[in-house]
Amino acid sequence: MNLKLKRAAEADDAVYNSDGVEDDDDDIPENVHNRLLGAVSKLYKKKRVDAPTRKEPTLEVSEFHLTSARDRKKKSGVNVSSLTKVLDKKATHKDIKKQVSGATSKSKRLDKPVERLEAEKVERAVGYENLKKDLGKWNAIVHHQRAAEQVSFPLPKSQEIHTWDDEAGFLSKFRTPTLLELQTAEILKASREYRNEVVDEEKVDKEPPIPLTLKEMMEQRALMARTRAQRRYKETKAARQNKIKSKKFHRIQRKEKIKAEMKEFEELQKKDPEAALKKLDQLEKARAQERASLRHRTTGHWAKSLQVRAKYDKEARIALAEQLQKSRELTRRLKQDSSSDEEFEENNDSDTEAKPTDDGKTFKTSKLDFDDMFYKIEDKLTEKVEKKVEKLKKQIDSTDLLPREGERSTDCSPKKGRKKNRESNVEDDLGAGFAMKKKVVRSEIDEALDETTSKDSTVQSANGRWSVEQVVLPVPVDDIEVEPPQEKPKTTDIEPVRTLQVKPKFLKTVVPTDLAGGEDLDDDDDETTAANGEAATHNMTIAEAFADDDVVREFQSEKEEEIKKSKIDDVNLALPGWGSWGGHAVKENKRKKERFIVKFPTVLPRRDENKGNVVINEDHDAPVKPLLVSDVPFPFTSVKDFEASIRAPIGSTFLPQKAFRKLTAPTVQTKMGTIIEPMSGDHVLKI
Amino acid sequence: MKVKVISRNPDHYLRETRKDLHRLPRNYDPSLHPFEANREYVRALNAVKLERVFAKPFVGNLDGHRDGVSCIGKHPKSLSLLASGSYDGEVRLWNLAQRICLKQSKAHDGYVRGLTFNSDGTNLITVGDDRTIKTWNTEATTLKDESPINTVISKTSITGISHHISDPKYATCGEVCQLWEESRSEPIRSFRWGFDSVHNIAFNPVESNVLGTCGNDRSIVIYDMRRTGPVRKVVMTMKCNQLCWNPMEAFVFTCASEDFNLYTYDSRYLRSPIIVHKDHVSAVTSVDYAPTGRQFVSGSYDKSIRIYNNDKVHSHEIYHTKRMQHVTFVQWSLDNKYIISASDEMNIRIWKAKASEKLGVLNRRERAALEYNEALKKKYESHPQIRRIARHRQIPGHIHKAQNEIQVQKQKNLRKEVNRRQHSKPGTVPFVPDKQASVIEEQE
C-alpha cells in the first residue's frame, strides 16, 4: 500500500515536472498553484494534528488536544539551540552556552506516563496505606476501651480550657477577704506549722544550748556508767536464775514475787483504787492464762493422785495421758513463741547497741548471712543424724532393744516429756531440719509398705506406729527392702475374705519394719505401750465379736448386687422361630441366639472394681449432675479458678456495701436521657 | 466476779436527724452466712426467670404513613425527634416521646431513598427517586409549612445520603458518589470506581473523612474524602444492603448482607471479615450500631429484628410481632435505650434496647438490686439451667421452619464437601473457613 502511494507520488511529480517544462509560459497564479500543491501533498502524507488553540479556560485536559512532537517542532519553532545561537557572538556567554549544551546532551526523554487505570491503582494503594495509618491512631484507645472493666458513656471529655472573653468574668472569680479572714491568716502565718517546718523535738531541746561544765560532764558520765553496770548485773543475774533447774528455788521465787505483788497491790488500793482494779484484772487474767495453758502437767494435786491410781486404774491412766498430751501441745507452741520472742529481743538489743554475740558476729547481718548460717546448721544436723542412725543400727543388731521403762512420763521438763514420742527423740536433739528430711523419707517408705504388705491390714497400723510388742511380719524384713515395685498389681487381686481368715503371726519384736529409711524407734514410754496394748485388745475384740457371722461374705454379696444393679443389660433381639423351626420341643440354636444379643458397650470400669471391701457409689450426685457446668467457661483456664470464682459471693448479704458495689458494677454505664456522641479526637489525645 | 452488762453507746444506733438512714449493724462473719454459692445460685435463677418474665420490649408504634416506610433518620441533638420517609414520597417528622407526627409533606415523586439531618439538626435533607435533594427546615413550627428551603436537581439518580458528623457536607450515592456542600448546588467532588451503581453510603462518625459504600456489584468500597477518593474495594459473594460504622471504634464497620449474615470488618484488613454474625433467615436489610459501640441491631426481610454483641457470632435477642412485615430500616437511639424500626406495613415501632429493662427513674436500692441481678446472671451464665432460661425465646413459626431448612441445607453442603474431598486428590479441595468463604477478592 505504502509502496503504491509512493509510486503514485513519483508519477505525479514526473507529470508536474514535465508540465513545468512543457507549459512554462502558462500563467497560473502562484498562490493558487501552491495551494494545490499543498492539497496534493496532504493527500499522500500522514495526517497531522493541529496544535490546540485555547479559547476559554477549562479544567479538563482532553487527549484530543494533544499535539504530536513533530508538529510542535515545525510550527512553534522555538528551540534551545536557536536561542543559544544569539549567545554565540559574545565570549562572556560562553559558560552559559556550555551549560546549555551539556544539559541538552545529558537529558533523557521522559518515560511514557503509566496508563490511567494503572495510575489510579497506584494512587489508591498509596491512599489506602495513608488511610490505614490514620485509622491506626485509634488503635490504642479502642483496645483500652475493649479491655476496660467498666466504661461509662457518654465518654468523659478531656479537660476544657476556660477562656474568659471579658475581664469582668475573669475577675468575678476573686473576692476580697474579710477582716476575720485576714486576721486568721496572719496568725496562721506566724505559726510554725503553717510554714510547714519540721518540728524536731530534739532541736527544740537543743535550742537553748547550755554548755556543761567539766564537772557536770564527769558527773553525767559516772551516772551513765553506773546505770549501765546495774543493768548488766541484773541481766546476768536473771540469765543465771533462769538457768537454775531446781523446782524448789523457782517455787520460792514465785511465791516471793506474788507476795511482793500483793503488797504492791494493797498499797495501790489505798492510793489509787482505779489503778488497783486494773491491776487486779491483770492478775486475774494472768492466772487464768496459766490455768488454761496446763503448764502444770503432773505436778498438781489431781495429777499426783491419779498417778498413784494409774497402776491399777485404766481410766486414770487414760486421763493422765490425755493431760500430758494436751500440755505437750500447748507447751510446744508456747516454747516456739517464746523462742521467737527471745530472738526478737536479741535483735532489738543488737539494733540498739550492736552487741556482738558469742560468735563475734552481730545480728545485723544481711539475709545472705542468715542463709549461710542456716545451711551450716543443717549440714551439722545431717551429720549428727547420720551418726546417730548408725549408732542405733549397731545397737539394733547387737542387742534386743527394749523400751526403757525407767523413763517416767511424770518428768517435769517439757523436753524430756516429748521424748516419749516415737520419733521425737532425734527431732528434739537435732531440730527441725531433720524432721523435714525424715518426713520425706517416711512418705516413700509408706508407699512401699502399702504395696507390699497390703495382704494384712494390721501391718500398716503396726508399722512402727504404736505396736512394738506385736508386730505382724508376714514377710521377712529383708524381703521388704528388696521387693521390687512391679509386684504392686498382684496385691489387688487378693480376695479380702481369705486375707482376713489367715491368722496373723505375732512376733515379739521391736525391730521396726522400715529400717531402710534410717528411722529409729529406740524409746517408747509407758503411755504409748499402754495405748498399743489397748489397740491390740480392741482388734481382738472385733475379730472375736464377728467370729460367728460371715460379715465379709455378706458384704461381698451386697457389692455384687450393687454392681449388677448398675450394669445395663444386653439386648436380645433374637426372635424365636425366625430363620429356623420353632415350637415347644425344638431346641434353639445357641450360636444363633448369641448372634442376636446386642451387648452393651463396656463403659468405664467401676471405681471400686479392685478396691476389695469397698462400695463406691458413683451416682450419688445424679440429681445435681444436670445442673453442673460441663466445661470450663471461657475466661477461666482451670477448674480450680472457676470454682473459686463461683464460691466467692458478690451479694450484700455476704459482703460489705463497698465490696458489693464494686463487684456488681455494670460494665457499661450510661446516663439517662443523655446523647452519647461518637468518639472524637480529644479522646485519642487523652490516652 | 465481774459481771458484764450490756451497754451500748446511743451514738451507734441513734440517728442524728429524722432524715438519716437507720443504721443497721451487720456481722459479715462468713460462718454466720453459710451456703453462699448455693444461695446465690438460687438468686441467679430467680433473676434470670424474672428477666424473662419482664421481657416486654415493645414500647409503641408510630402510624400515619400511607405506604411502607423506606427509611428513618435520628436527630443528632434531640432524642425525641425522628424523621421518616416512605415509598409514596412522603416525609414525616415525629415526636417519639409523645408519639405524634409533627410534620408531614409530600417530598418526592416515588420513593424517598434516604434522609439525614445536618450536623446540628436544624435541617433535614432528603433524596428521592426524582433525582432531587431537598432540604427542609425542622424548626419551623407551622404544620402546613410544606415547602423545602432548598432543592437541588441532580444530574444523576440518587439512592442514598449520609451527612458529615460535624461539617456542613453530605455525600450521596447513586450512579456516582458525590460530595456536596450544603450551601452549593453543585457537588464539590464526585468519585467513581467501576460502572455499577452504589445504593448505600455512610460517613465514618469518628474518622470523619472516611466513607463506606455498598455497591450493586456486590462490593464494599472505602473512600478517603480528602485525597484519593476510593481507596479499597472488597467484592463479596452476595450484595451488601447497608453499612454502618462503629461509633466507638473508628476502623470497624458492619454490613448487612443479602446472604442472611452480617459481616464486621476491620477496614485496615479487608481480606476477610473479623466476625460473621449469623442467625437471620432472610436477607438482612438494615443495621445500626448502638452509640456505645458494644452492640448493634439488624432488621431483616424475615420480619424480625435481632440484637448482636459486636464480638459475638450469634444474636442475643430477637424482636418480632405478628403484624410486623419485612423490616426496612432500624436505628438505635442515641441514649442507648431504644430501638426504632421501620417496616413494610407502614408502621414505625419503638422497642426497648434491653427487653426486660425497667423504664424511668430508679431509686438507689432498686438500681443496686438490678445491678446485683445482672452480676449474678453474668456469674452463673455458664450453668446449664440458667443458660437455658436466659437463651429461651419464642420465635414465629416461619422463622423456625426456615432455620430448620437452613440447617438442612448447611448439612447437605457440608456432607457434599466432605464427600468431594474424600474422592478427590488430597489438597485439591481446600478447607475454606466461613469468614473467607464470603469474600471473593480485595481489589486495590
Automatic annotation (TrEMBL), chain A:
Please give the chief subcellular localization of this protein. Answer: nucleus
Ranges for region Disordered: 1-29, 327-365, 389-430, 477-496, 514-533
- Keyword Nucleus listed? The answer is yes
Provide a GO biological process annotation: rRNA processing
Pfam families assigned to the protein according to its UniProt record, in alphabetical order: Utp14
| Stored InterPro entries | SSU_processome_Utp14
What the record says about family reads:
Belongs to the UTP14 family.
This protein's name: U3 small nucleolar RNA-associated protein 14 homolog A
Automatic annotation (TrEMBL), chain B:
Q: Which GO terms describe its cellular component?
A: small-subunit processome
- Which UniProt keyword terms apply here? Nucleus, Repeat, Ribonucleoprotein, WD repeat
Q: Which Gene3D superfamilies does the entry mention? A: YVTN repeat-like/Quinoprotein amine dehydrogenase
Q: Which GO biological-process labels does this protein carry?
A: maturation of SSU-rRNA from tricistronic rRNA transcript (SSU-rRNA, 5.8S rRNA, LSU-rRNA); protein ubiquitination
Q: What is its main location?
A: nucleus
- Give the family, as the similarity comment puts it: Belongs to the WD repeat DCAF13/WDSOF1 family.
What is this protein identified as? DDB1- and CUL4-associated factor 13
Which source organism does the UniProt entry give? Laodelphax striatellus
